[in-house]
Structure formats: structure tokens, C-alpha cells
Amino acid sequence: MSLTRAQVQRATTISPWTRDFRHLLPVPRHFQNRQTWFDPVTKAVRVKDRIKFWNVVPGDQISIRGDARKTIHEVLSINKFTNRVYLKGANLHEGKAYKTPVNRSVHYSRCQLYIGEPAQKSNKVNTQTTSVFARRIGVREAHWNPILYRWEWNRVILATDPPVSHMKNTPLPWPQPEERDHQEPNPLLDTTPETVREITYKPPVFSHPLDSAATEKAYLRTLFNPSAVSFDPSAPMEVHLTKELSNPHGRAKKQARWQAAMKRKTTLFKKFIAQELMSMNGRSVRDARAEAAFKYRQKLEEERRAEKKRRWLTKERVAKLERKSQRKARKADKQKEKLNQLVLRDAPNQYIPGKSAKRQEA
Questions:
Q1: pLDDT tens, 252-267?
Q2: CB atoms within 10 A of CB 11
Q3: Burial, 7: exposed, middle or buried (Cβ in 10 Å; 0-12, 13-18, 19+)?
């Protein structure tokens, strides 16, 4: 599935996780053409220059390569199509009140992850603590997490600035998300715990076992034809409305319907293969199976079209088609009646079958 213009324009994200590698797909050139002055500028670097595994994610603390003061910044968001890292609190238009604030961005290659201050320089006077940054980071054990639906890997320190020998090949932890500040609920608007724990539903007491399927049919027959059979109105209503009260869109029911459909398709495919293998007619087994697969796909397509037509023929559309056919029938009857009652006066250059022949004989 190709990219859309909206996906490229909204590529800047604050999520640290990698769900897929769609940012490695090529971006069409016409996406960069602005149709109006109000459209945002769409930018994207070449595919070969994009980064597959991002080790600098929102929440990390970095230092910009080339900064002599080694100022530590926090990553606000990233754009995987442009390889840009946006910094938190760094305003490009600082001091210009007439311009909209824009977060400063730097290229991914200029980012150095902040590790800590383990390196110490001691001299005769005092001990000085120096900040250490990761100059190169490696990717180890990249794998797909089927539970969280995302790619995960371990980032490892390969080189530091300043160099620290014992830190090489040391795992670098990922930033931890900030805990949400849960405000205290308003007691005037919140439900009290006593009300929540109160049991208000009292299930009926069954004096004897009931057959839900048979009772449901009896209930429906009595509902549409009260004089058909005798029905006990004192029976619990929940037994009769089992299907109506249960959610048909629940996960378990949807999965059961899907499994039944898959089983039916598998049985149908095996049936076609068995029919073709019974009558080979000089074909090989491979050709027979290919013919069975073709007929199987044709059958599925016919069923799909029939189901589409069945869904299209709603009650309102059927009534509309019936009214339309009745109008056409009435119109055809009127035209036929007019032709039957049509009377032509005698006039020259006119030939009436039967009457004109009798005139010539007379």
C-alpha cells in the first residue's frame, strides 16, 4: 500500500515506538508541490538516506554535536521522513513576538545521547565530573513484538565522548514515559463506591430445567399467533430473548463466525479438488488442481456478487423496484389500449390491410 500526502505531512510524531517501516517507502515527487499557499510544505529525504532503526526517540536527552557548551536538550518529537529531531523548549523565533513559535530541529546525525556523569577528572586541587555522551549507537536483537504490535531492539553504546573504555557495548536504556497526573474525581459528579457495589439485578429462580431453543420457538409462535399453542407467561423473559439480549458483535462470536467461514471455504476447495481428480481426462495432477483452484475462485466470486446483491436489495429498494415495474406495466397497458382503440379516417395514399384489398376488388 503506497503512502498518502496526509501521512507524509503528519509524519512528525511523539511516539517512541516503531510500528512499521512505512517511512522507508518512496514518496512521490508531486507530493512536494503545494496546491495552495495554505498547504504545508512536504519534505522527504531520499530513501537510501533514511534511518530504519531510530535510536533517538522522544524523551531522550541529547547534546548537539559541535556545541562547545554541551547543552543538554530533551527530544520532543521526530520526523522519520526528513531525519529531523525536534527539541523541547528550543524556539527558533525566540524574542520575536510577532512570529509563531516553532520548535528548533536538528539532523539525526548531530545528536549525541546523554549517558550520565560517570567520568571523573581528578587533580591535586579537586575532582571534576564530566558529562558523557554516546557518539555511536548500535542495534542488537531486533524483533517484532506480537503482543504490543511493534518492533523492539536493544541499543548498545559503541563509542562515547569523551572516550570511556568500560562503557563500550553497554546497553543503553530507553526513556521511560511520564506518569499521567490523575486528578481526583469530583464527588458531585462521580458515582459513589457503595452504589457501584450494590447488586440491583436479581436473576430468576428456575424451578425446573428449561429447553431454551424449544421455549424460544414456542414463545415466537405464541407472539405471532396467540391461539396456536398454549404458552406459560410466567416463564422468565431472559430465556426467550437470549439472542436479542446477547451482543452479536462480540469478539468470541465474530471469531466463531470467521472460523466457520474459513472451515466452509476449506471444505469447498477440497470438494472441487476431489471432483477434478475423479475425472482426469488425460490431465496431470497439477493441471487438475489448478483447474479446481480456478473453479473455486470463480465460485467465491459468484457468492460474493450474490451476497452484494442481496445486501443491496433492501426492503425499501425492493418496494421501489416493485412500484417502478407496476408503473411500467400500467404505461404499457395504456399504450396497448390506445393502439386497439385507434380509428383512422379514409384518406388518399393510405393502405389499411384487409380493407384496402376489399376496396380494390369492389
A1: 999 999 999 999 999 9
A2: 21
A3: middle
